Every structure is written in structure tokens, then in C-alpha cells.
Amino acid sequence: MTTEMGSQEPVQPVVGLALGSGSARGWAHIGVIQALDEIGVHPQVVAGTSIGALVGGAYVTGSLNAFADWVESLTVKDVFGLLDISFSGGMVKGEKLFSFFQNNHDNPEIETLDKKLVTVATDMASGREVWITKGRMLDAARASCALPGLFSPVKMQGRWMLDGGLVNPVPVSAARAMGADVVIAVNLNAQLVGAHLSRDTRSQAEGEESTAEERSIWQKMMDYFASGDGQDPGFFDVVASSINIMQDRITRSRMAGDPPEVTLVPMLEDFALMDFHRAKEAIAEGRALVKRYEADILAWVGSPIADRV
Q1: Termini Cα distance of the chain
Q2: Residues noted as catalytic
Q3: Structural domain for 241, as ranges
């Protein structure tokens, strides 16, 4: 649009979200997106890795609020009930969790969406970074969530896929490649967590009323996630801690080379790997982050006054 002086009004930039990996801390992504919406910032491009791919998928399909209601209702028992135990390629197949999502939320083809979505996975054979921009949303998210030692790898496009956090934990580069002018990144890797089930989580699981079969399953899971024998680290301690350290270093390197315009770091240092039942806390922190950085965000994207009145 041209004014009387002949100048043009500034064009609003394409806003992209880079939603990082971080297991249960990833519920903070929900609060970030909800709070952005409240200040009139509506990202048109979403790049997600691991849990960021799942939350990003819920957002671009218009299911985010319903998804938020569901995750906020989860108890420790619910979380364990959604995990299908398997010691082939990973402790959890992930079929129960993603089947539940598919039965309760939309799962369209990515190409049909109004917003752009790209999920990041890792080719197990070559170690290459794979950007998924086609096919069913849940398939793309599931391929990005195959955390070694926890979720089994997924075969997609004739290749076995591992968690995208192994190569690109906070996918700023993917968001830019999809057309984002301004990237808001959510980095969950700044605070490494030694425990994988917090003490409160273990206590809640042990105190839940359950059948003998359920108690047996829970005990197997708690043993797997336990922090060794008090002196020597357990198997999963070694695997998960190594992945956390690697992802933190990769995140620092990649974000230094291609920094986002805005970086949001949720303060969830007491969140353990499997604390998925603590969604309310994580979502609240995500919302609070946007409020704290609202001025910076609007300075980059331009104040969308029309959307806020």
C-alpha cells in the first residue's frame, strides 16, 4: 500500500518458530505458542525437533488447545499407560502414544496445511539430517521423536529414522529454509538434567493404586530410569546424559553460526526426562517467557496492532 507521500507501508515479516528437543520440558512450547497468539504473533513457519515436532504439529493442525487440555490432565499413571514397553531398538515403541493422538486429533497431510511445517529427524544409516515436509503430520513427528534408548526408531522413506536432536536440537536453519524472516527459537537444552524420573514422580508411581501387572511394568520402567546404584551410573543414565551433553554442545554451535532473532530458554531445571505429567508447570513457564520477552519479540516482528484490538 502506498501513502500520500509515495512511501510504502512496511511489510510484516514471515515469523518462524524453531521448537527444540527436550522431552517433558517440551510442554513449554505449548505455553510459548499460546502466549504468542495472545500478543498477536502468529507464526507462519514451524520447524520442530523431537517433542518440538509433536507440539508444532498440533499447532499447525489447529489442535493445540485441545492437545494442551489433554496433556495438562495427564497423571503419572496415564503417562506410563501410554508407553508400550519394548526392548527392541528402544524401551518404548511409541505406538500407544501416537495412536491415541491420532484417534483424538487431526492428522492431515503436511502439504495441505495453511502453515508450513518441517520436522527434523536423523538418518540412522548415514547420520544425515533429514527434513520432513510431506506426508502425515504424525508420521513426521514420530520420526523426529525416536530418542535413542527410549523410543524405537521409525522406518520412513525406506530409511530408519532417529531423533532429530542428534543433529539439529533447535532447528533454526530449517525454519529459515522454509521462508522465515524472523525466527523465535525455544531452546530446552540449556539446563541438563541428571535424573530421568524425579523423586516425586517415582513416589507418585509407587503410591498409585494399581494391579500387580501394572506395578510390575512400572517397576521395570523405574528400574530402567533409575540413577544407578548410588555409586555407579545406570545404563540409561549413561545413554541419556551423553545425548543431553551432545545436544547442548550441538545447540550452542549451530545457534552461534545461525542465531535466531529471539531465543527463549524455559527455566525448568528440576524437570526430569519423563516428567510428562507436569505439563501445567511447563506450559506456565512458556507463557511467562513470552511475557518477559514481549517487547523484544514485537520489536522484531512489528507490533501487530490490528490483531490486538
Answers
A1: 21
A2: 50, 163
A3: 15-193+216-307
**Is residue 201, in this structure, part of any structural domain at all?**
no
Residue located via cell numbers 511447563? 282
Per-residue pLDDT of the chain (309 residues; tens, 9 = 90+): 444 455 555 678 999 999 999 888 999 999 999 999 999 999 999 999 999 999 999 999 999 999 999 999 988 878 877 766 555 544 555 566 777 777 777 789 999 999 999 999 999 999 999 999 999 999 999 999 888 767 778 888 899 999 999 999 999 999 999 999 999 999 998 765 555 555 555 555 555 555 555 555 555 555 555 555 556 776 666 777 777 788 888 888 888 889 999 999 999 877 877 788 899 999 999 999 999 999 999 999 986 544 443
Domains identified in the chain, total number = 1
Quick check: 262 and 297 in contact, CB under 8 A?
A: yes
- State the CATH number of the domain containing residue 102: 3.40.1090.10
Structural domain contains residue 1: no
The sign of the torsion formed by the CA atoms of 297, 298, 302, 307 equals positive
Q: Is the full-model pTM beyond 0.85? A: no
Which grid coordinates belong to 91? 524401551
